[in-house]
Hints:
228 residues; 2 domains
Amino acid sequence: MNAGTERPVRVLLADDEAVIRAGVRAILAEDPGIEVVAEAADGREAVGRARAHRPDVALVDIRMPVMDGLSAVAEMRRAAPATGVLVLTTFGEEEYVARALAGGAAGFLLKTGDPRELLLGVRAVAGGGAFLSPRVARRLLDGMEHDRSTRRLAVAGRVGDLTAREREVLALLGAGLSNGEIGRRLFLVEGTVKGHVSAILKRLGVRNRVEAAVLAYEAGLVDRAGGG
């Protein structure tokens, strides 16, 4: 958590609906350690603001004019690679979530979800973690499971190949914890956690923390982690 003299988490808010931006801004204002430094009403403007302000986190609507949210996520990752992108979505857009994941998004939130998830998500991504709204994760997994039993067995096999410590790290990663938070929970130095995370990504054959988090949900590890 940023506190005391530490600088606040700097956020870019991108949504074409002014009412949505106002609502999200009001929720973020409840946390004195989070500051909205810029807003954008379309995807191209969002990329430009990300390049200019270099925020810690960008909250990006998946559907925007001029340049849609999916294209904006990919462009933003190139223009401001240090900025973590949280995608704002609604039910029925699971296929867009999967594409945003491939574009480098660090997390997904429901526009109609619990306001506390917004604060948790911003904090998690700012700390280098990933964040999946549990309801988004469940819907995403349902959409991915063409053959539920076969896929579950495949996931169990992949996760089962991890060491016990790696499974602990994966569970906490899936719950949205950053490397530092995982280290404090497991009494490990952050460098050791980074090593575990790199090994997990390689052994699971996934590209990033969010894909690993999806597998953690699917394997049932997140509930056991006691996080979220």
